[in-house]
Design brief:
It is built from two helices and nine strands; from the N terminus they run H-E-E-E-E-E-E-H-E-E-E. The protein is α+β, with helices and mostly antiparallel strands. Strand 8 and strand 9 form a beta hairpin. InterPro entries: DUF306_Meta_HslJ, HslJ-like_sf, Hsp_HslJ-like.
């Protein structure tokens, strides 16, 4: 009986420690919410310095940004994940997931890779510009 009681107490302690860690993680991630002007639907216009065409994507890729996450389309597959602000003009797309339907979108892989490496942004004249360590990568118009 003592063994069962000790085991029960140990399990309660382990579970309560885990619960505390999850609460702390949730609290700290809310500190990186993106600014309000970024929180909307954006449609891709330019990829690596080139205007996108119907030959590149079957449908226009888009991203929908909320305070701490994003969703959207690569032109064929759905995409979603977390979005963290790292200060003024600094963001990171993380926990990236995408569907794996076979598509005829030639630039889909390039689009998703550039989202994954994005580290900065700016907004000017209702356009969103994303960049990584090498410079400007994509531009979007308001959707």
């Amino acid at each position: 009986m003592k063994r069962i009681l000790m085991l029960l107490i140990a399990m309660v302690l382990v579970c309560s420690c885990k619960s505390t860690k999850e609460t702390q993680t949730t609290t700290s991630s809310s500190e990186g919410l993106v600014e309000k002007k970024l929180q909307q639907t954006w449609i891709l216009e330019n990829l690596n310095g080139k205007v996108i065409t119907n030959k590149d994507f079957s449908n226009s890729p888009k991203i929908v940004i909320t305070p701490s996450a994003f969703s959207g389309s690569t032109g064929c597959n759905a995409v979603k994940g977390n979005l963290v602000s790292k200060g003024d003009g600094k963001i990171q797309f993380s926990n990236f997931t995408t569907e794996t339907k076979k598509c005829d979108a030639k630039k889909e892989g390039e689009f998703t890779q550039l989202l994954k490496t994005t580290s900065g942004y700016s907004i000017k004249d209702n356009k969103l510009f994303l960049s990584n360590q090498f410079g400007l990568t994509m531009s979007f118009k308001k959707g």
